[in-house]
């Protein structure tokens, strides 16, 4: 008669626990592709899984979220009109230039005042100024940032992104912002494109169009900021990352505007893109483990919060009184 040893029993329990966590994770991911889960709820589900169950595929998370976000954004282009996008871009260009330059300068001064490590401070400032994780991913190899510095900046940005996704629509309704105003505000004040689109889609279709267009135009600033980074940190050898998916987003808008045949199925494409975006936010939340959250530290987080408060409040005032 075979007697199961304690070691075998423990191994069986561990395997069962691992299988259960994978099953829960996959079930939640599938639910995010349905109309029943909003972007905010998806992010919250991811955060809960990160704290209590753990991400069973964490090693694939960064690559998955990057590709899903790019595909989602391109898909959203099939629901937008070129002429409206140009108008939205014209409205946002002055806000973009002013906010990026102000955030970078203030971020530098704030980082020195708080004595935040130089490269971490620059990554936090760049992520806040342009487009969150995408900017950090582009700038970090240029300045030769190490894994710890990148983790601190990403953790800070993703924490604040999570907060923004929940509170921005509430603030927008409180101040009775129009969809145009809210779209502009989101694009300027929320770090990551995923959270910008998530918050704007909850507010309304025109808010989504304005926010996506202005945010992606803002993302193009990754290129000059990367060049500036190479100069400031005296590193001329690194390759600059160019966000080519933005060109595909523009192409999708052009096709949607000038190819009538696309109107037969553009609704299905944009619906699928929104579902993929919701899944992206779930994966982002699931990646915010306790280890990531604890690695940020008080001073870098304080720098990120103050910078975010500055850009959020000034942008809100600007869109309410100038837009």
Secondary structure blueprint with pairings:
Layout: H1 6-31, H2 39-52, H3 58-76, H4 82-114, H5 118-129, H6 133-139, H7 147-174, H8 179-189, H9 193-203, H10 205-219, H11 222-232, H12 245-258, H13 266-286, H14 290-296, H15 298-321
Helix pairs in contact: 2-13, 3-12, 3-13, 4-5, 4-10, 4-15, 5-6, 5-7, 5-15, 6-11, 7-9, 7-14, 7-15, 8-9, 8-10, 8-15, 9-10, 9-13
Task: Kindly describe this structure.
The protein is an all-alpha fold and 323 residues long. The chain has one domain. The chain contains 15 helices and no strands. It has helices spanning 6-31, 39-52, 58-76, 82-114, 118-129, 133-139, 147-174, 179-189, 193-203, 205-219, 222-232, 245-258, 266-286, 290-296, 298-321. The chain is globular. The model has no long low-confidence stretch (mean pLDDT 83).
Summarize, please.
With 323 residues, this protein is mostly helical. Helix content is 78%, strand content 0%.
């Amino acid at each position: 008669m075979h007697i199961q040893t304690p070691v075998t029993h423990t191994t069986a329990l561990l395997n069962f626990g691992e299988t259960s966590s994978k099953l829960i994770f996959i079930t939640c991911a599938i639910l995010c592709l349905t109309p029943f889960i909003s972007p905010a709820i998806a992010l919250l589900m991811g955060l809960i899984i990160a704290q209590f169950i753990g991400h069973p595929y964490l090693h694939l998370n960064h690559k998955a979220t990057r590709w899903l976000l790019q595909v989602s954004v391109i898909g959203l282009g099939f629901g937008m009109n070129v002429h409206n996008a140009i108008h939205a871009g014209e409205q946002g260009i002055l806000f973009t230039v002013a906010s990026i330059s102000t955030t970078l300068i203030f971020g530098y001064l704030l980082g020195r005042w708080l004595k935040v490590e130089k490269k971490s401070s620059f990554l936090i400032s760049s992520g806040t100024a342009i487009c969150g994780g995408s900017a950090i991913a582009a700038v970090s190899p240029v300045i030769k940032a190490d894994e710890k510095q990148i983790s601190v900046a990403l953790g800070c940005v993703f924490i604040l992104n999570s907060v923004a996704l929940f509170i921005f629509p509430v603030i927008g309704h409180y101040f009775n912002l129009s969809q145009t105003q809210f779209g502009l505000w989101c694009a300027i004040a929320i770090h990551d494109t995923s959270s910008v689109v998530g918050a704007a889609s909850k507010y309304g279709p025109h808010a989504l169009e304005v926010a996506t267009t202005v945010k992606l135009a803002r993302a193009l600033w990754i290129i000059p900021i990367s060049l500036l980074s190479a100069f400031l940190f005296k590193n001329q050898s690194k390759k600059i990352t160019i966000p080519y998916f933005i060109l595909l987003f523009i192409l999708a808008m052009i096709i949607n505007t000038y190819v009538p045949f696309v109107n037969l199925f553009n609704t299905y494409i944009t619906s699928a893109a929104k579902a993929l975006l919701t899944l992206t936010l779930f994966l982002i939340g699931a990646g915010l483990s306790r280890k990531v959250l604890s690695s940020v530290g008080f001073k870098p987080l304080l720098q990120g919060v103050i910078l975010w408060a500055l850009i959020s409040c000034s942008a809100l005032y600007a869109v309410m009184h100038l837009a």
